[in-house]
From TrEMBL:
<dbReference type="InterPro" id="IPR032675">
    <property type="entry name" value="LRR_dom_sf"/>
</dbReference>
<dbReference type="Pfam" id="PF23598">
    <property type="entry name" value="LRR_14"/>
</dbReference>
<dbReference type="InterPro" id="IPR050333">
    <property type="entry name" value="SLRP"/>
</dbReference>
<protein>
    <submittedName>
        <fullName>Leucine-rich repeat protein</fullName>
    </submittedName>
</protein>
<feature type="domain" description="Disease resistance R13L4/SHOC-2-like LRR">
    <location>
        <begin position="159"/>
        <end position="280"/>
    </location>
</feature>
<keyword id="KW-0433">Leucine-rich repeat</keyword>
<keyword id="KW-0677">Repeat</keyword>
<dbReference type="InterPro" id="IPR055414">
    <property type="entry name" value="LRR_R13L4/SHOC2-like"/>
</dbReference>
Amino acid sequence: MNKRIREDITSADILISENNSHSSQQEAKKTKLSPFEIFSDDVIYEILNYHRNDFIFMVMNCALVSKQWLNVISERLKFSLVCGSDSKMQGQFLQNIENLKVRIGTIAFELFDCRLFGLMKHLTQLDVSVNLFTFSQAKLIGELAPQLTNLNISHNTIGVYGAKHISKLKHLTILNISGNLIGQQGAKAISNLEYLTELNISNNSIFEEGVKFIGEMKQLRTLDIHNNMIEEKGVEHLTQLEQLTKLDISNNSIGANGVKYLTKMKQLTILDVSYNRIDEKEFYF
């Protein structure tokens, strides 16, 4: 091997060695923790995720450990929270709430500030049942929480106009709107939710006309329609729901002919027809 070739090989070896050394240094920089970091972000996430249902503990304690912990909470954690008041609902962590239950109730005579929903960008599940909500609160929910997929707004008084605002939540797959005085026109508004697969619309006096609109929701798999003053003609509209597997139509007046319509729904696996008049003697079963 002549001198020139040996020099070229030596130069190449040096260059490769330098490149490998540079790559190792770069890799070390990526994985090396700062002097103030004991754990990696992934380890901190696993620790924090174990306590993610304790919102107060996370915000008042964990977020104060270090800037690293604060960043992990802000960027990666999603919270579930039960709230009895909106007085302390503030700060940057509202955007991390994914599941919220509002439990102010009907005794305190105060309403939750629904404008806060606009700050909860990742909120997908919301339970505001039994909170004296009217169409005004329903309007804010419809406008400020379009990303919701699961909503329980049962046992309030949102009425027809409230139902129309709730129908703007186009991503809903589960809705409990029972006990809200929404009537037939409210049922018509709700029937426009094309992704809804589970619906509780009980205790709303929707009558036969309301059932007609619900019968157009072909994607439904679970339906609770009890106590809605439904008679046998209304039941016929439900036979169009070919994907429905669970049905509660109790506490109505569907009669014997209404039961006959139900027998056509062979796909049903769970059926409640209790407290329904099935003959002239008002026999209940």
